[in-house]
Amino acid sequence: METRSNHVLVGAAVLILLLLLAFFIVWLARLSGAEEKEYDIFFRQSVDGLAKGSAVAYSGVPAGQVREIALWKPDPQLVRVRVALDPDIPILRGTTATVQSSFTGTSTVALDGGEKGQPEITCPKENAVTQCPFGVPVIPTRIGGLGAVLNSAPQLLERLSALTERLTQMLSDKNQASIAGILENTNRLTSALADRGPEIAATLAQTRIAVQQAGDAAEKIGDLAATTNGVLSEDVRPAMANLNEAIKSAKASTDTLNAAIGDARPGLQAFSKQTVPEVGQLVHDLRVMSESLSSVAQKLDQGGAGSLIGPQKLPDYKPGK
Asked: Quick one: where's region Disordered (predicted)?
């Protein structure tokens, strides 16, 4: 009986010690968990190689570990990764997260980009559900490093495949024959140009001379233009000034003549209405008087002065024998 009682006491003591150890471990876990800060990261890229317990580093410095990985139900293209970080790690605004893959198959979460003087990333008081859907702050993501290469690998392979197909079509037998013909024609053209090298050199020399002569002609034209401008400024402008003065004088004379004609117009009208008819009558009287004088002169010639006093004497009658 005493042996059995000792075994029972030993078993009870061991069980109590185990329970105390379990409570101590749980207490330590809760204590350490209370000190850590949790954040959510929503990756749109693949998180291959990432698992619970994977390391989290800030600029290469160990900062925590991954606690949970799951698809986000509202958008299955996003992968939610919960990380627990050391409280001494400053997660400031501007900090971003990336998945650092390696060729060994393991991946880590890399944090960097925090800006000095910025506040820490926290859940806002307003729209907290939208900004922090699981009650913890969210760290933005960016694609970089090997992850970006791996994400773009399918598109790169597709483009390489399309490029290979186009190169195959371009290098078909028909196109190869065309390219060979083009190369042959190019060789012929090169040979012809080589044979005509002296002629081309002579043509270039003549062209150089023509360009030089054109430059000289342009310079002479410039000198002529300058001389013409000088002549215009020195000779033509004074002549134009004299011509303008002559035009002004002629205009003044014309105005004076117009005024004189205006003043003489009443006398001219009176002369045409009165004097001209009187002069006509005078001319008529002079013509009549001239005819009378002609008649008198004729009588004097025929009958002498007596013809003017008496009638004309008849000739004596002489009878025939």
From this structure: 302-321
